[in-house]
Amino acid sequence: MALRVLGIDPGSRATGWALVIAEGNRYQFERAGVIRPRGNERHRRLSNLREVLARVVEELAPDSEVVIMSAAVADFRPVTTRSSKIKKGAGGPDLKLEGTEDILARLQTIAPNALRIGFAAETGELEEEARRKMKEKGAHWIVANDVSRSDIGFGSEHNEVTVFRRNKPAVTLGRQAKRRIAGRLLDLVKQELDGVEAEVAVTSG
Fold first, then answer.
1. 164-194, pLDDT tens digit by residue?
2. What's the rounded Cα separation, in Å, for the pair 177 and 188?
3. Helix 103-110, helix 126-137: angle, nearest 10
4. Is-contact 140 131, C-beta < 8 A?
5. What DSSP designation does 86 have?
6. CA atoms within a 13 Å half-sphere pointing along the CA-CB vector of 11
7. Segment (H or E) for 77
């Protein structure tokens, strides 16, 4: 079975994406692009990036067997913005935020037949938060990790994740190099597509 994989490498000034067709041990490049957000202010770049990235997902996701959304551009944005410096005065500024559009949640409509996988970086109540997000966003899997730990996640070459799945036992991948985590996640995806049940034991390497 051929697998269409959309990969996204986010950045505030440039975000690259590529679509690869994987079949067995063979990989075929299909298309790629770079999103260079307009504007000098960070909030304008992030807003433009979110809009363009949403269009890319809307175009490519409907024909994909699996859609993996590893990170959001931003969860919140300021309600109002200014192009000039906010002067220091008595007390701090009254900063009001609003939520951004959730692209993962939209996949329920955009790609209803795809295996939809999201990620969750948490600092506590890992399983509770992951399962809540899986239900609210209509995802089939949520890959969660504890970013409060200093030995994995942000700023580390290693990670440890738990894959929470609908109506199936969770699968934990013990602390190991991020590259190995990525490979084992794709192995789990292949097993899911092939109808093979994954081992739920903690694995590391």
1. 999 899 999 999 999 899 889 988 988 898 8
2. 17
3. 40
4. no
5. P
6. 9
7. strand 76-78
Q: Specify the DSSP element, H or E, that contains 205.
A: none
173 or 36: which carries more pLDDT confidence?
A: 173
Strand partners, 120: 144
Ranges of H-type helices in the chain: 42-60, 103-110, 126-137, 178-194
Q: Could you tell me which residues are beta bridge partners of residue 158?
A: 177
The DSSP H or E segment spanning 34 is strand 26-35
List the structure tokens of 116: 């939809």
Task: Give me the sheet containing 66-69, strands edge to edge.
Answer: 66-69, 115-122, 141-146, 158-165, 168-177
Hey, what amino acid is at 112? P
Burial of 121 (0-12, 13-18, 19+ CB in 10 A): middle
User: pLDDT, tens digit, for every residue of 139-168?
Assistant: 999 999 999 999 998 888 999 999 999 989
Q: How far apart are CA 80 and CA 172, in angstroms?
A: 41
Amino acid (one-letter) located at 12: S
β-strand partners of 122:
146
Measured from the Cβ of residue 76, the count of other Cβ atoms closer than 10 Å reads 11
| CA-to-CA separations, 56 to 2, 19, 23, 50, 61, in angstroms, rounded | 21, 11, 23, 10, 8
Q: Which pair of structure tokens corresponds to residue 4?
A: 């269409």
